[in-house]
Amino acid sequence: MEALSSKQQAILDFVHDFYRESGYPPSVREIQRACGISSTSVVDYNMRILEQKGLLKRDREVSRGIDMRDDAAPRLFEVPLMGAIAAGAPIPVLEDRQADETVTVLDSLLAGRERVFALRVKGNSMVQDAILDGDIVLIEDRRTAGNGDTVAVWLKDEQETTLKRYYDEGERIRLQPANDAMAPIYVSPENVEVQGRFVGLLRGEFS
What we know:
Blueprint: H1 6-22, H2 28-35, H3 40-52, E1 56-58, E2 66-68, E3 76-86, E4 101-106, H4 107-110, E5 116-122, E6 136-141, E7 150-155, E8 160-168, E9 173-176, E10 185-187, E11 192-202
Parallel strand pairs: 3-5
Antiparallel strand pairs: 1-2, 3-4, 5-6, 6-11, 7-8, 7-11, 8-9, 9-10
Helix pairs in contact: 1-3, 2-3
């Protein structure tokens, strides 16, 4: 195969990196800005060459319609979006655990985990852990947690769920926000049901 030009290599590298970090392909304008290219038409020209070389495939009728074609291309999975979870005041969880929506996630974020679902964050209690209002958090479906894990927990008496750091202090469980302006929540162990452990988040066009 004929060697790629510096522009073509820069475009290919950026698309790979963007896929890994964001879980979806970049737009042509994002490629233009990131690679310092003078216009979107120049991006389009070089992407046509990459497509001719079999390194990617484009669907021009779809926004962000780039499909990586080489062996290094990441695999994408659909994860059910189960609704919202408060990262401030707790809110009710979806008891039937049925999802009408999904989000697209890179396999590297799942790291082989099979039971993962997504929740949209509402509130600012986890901002010091870089979990912001509007983010999509990925939650591994599990019923146990270690001290310091960020978990989605169901508060049985309150019939509410929340996202906090988990600490077992013997006679009580401390649910610690990552926001110095907010106080921890203390509950009895019998009142807490761990529903899942935080494993990653999505930001950008999902927020």
